[in-house]
Amino acid sequence: VNSLSVDHRGFAKSEGSLSFGVHEREDVRRWIEWARREKGIQGLVGIYGGSYGAGVGLQALAVNPEVSCMVALHP
User: Fold this and answer.
1) Angle subtended at Cα 9 by Cα 19 and Cα 38, rounded to the nearest 5 degrees
2) Could you tell me which residues come within 8 angstroms of residue 13 by beta carbon, excluding any fewer than 6 positions away?
3) Backbone conformation region of residue 56, classed left if phi is above 0, alpha if psi is from -120 to 50, else beta
4) pTM, whole model, 2 decimals?
């Protein structure tokens, strides 16, 4: 099992500002591309998100065919 933990834009040490999913769902696509290219990750991709991350994950699930499932905690 592989995992990647991130700080969304505007949170913790991440740059940028919140866009309430407008740009974050594209960030998710880029993180998946990075994991596949740089780490050789293959197969299905699932997302787990809590609160704000749950909302972003649900939006990413809706527009990203690479994401096969989502666990949303307190969206």
Assistant:
1) 125
2) 7
3) alpha
4) 0.84
Assigned token pair, 27: 């960030």
Instruction: Point out which residues pair with 61 in neighbouring strands.
Output: none
DSSP 8-state code for residue 5? -
- Expressed in angstroms, the distance from the first to the final Cα of the chain is 24
Helix (H, G, I), strand (E, B) or coil at 71: strand
Number of neighbours of residue 31 by Cβ within 10 angstroms: 15
**What distance in Å separates the CA atoms of residue 58 and residue 38, rounded to the nearest whole number?**
25
pLDDT mean values, one per 10 residues, the chain (75 residues): 90 90 92 95 93 94 92 92
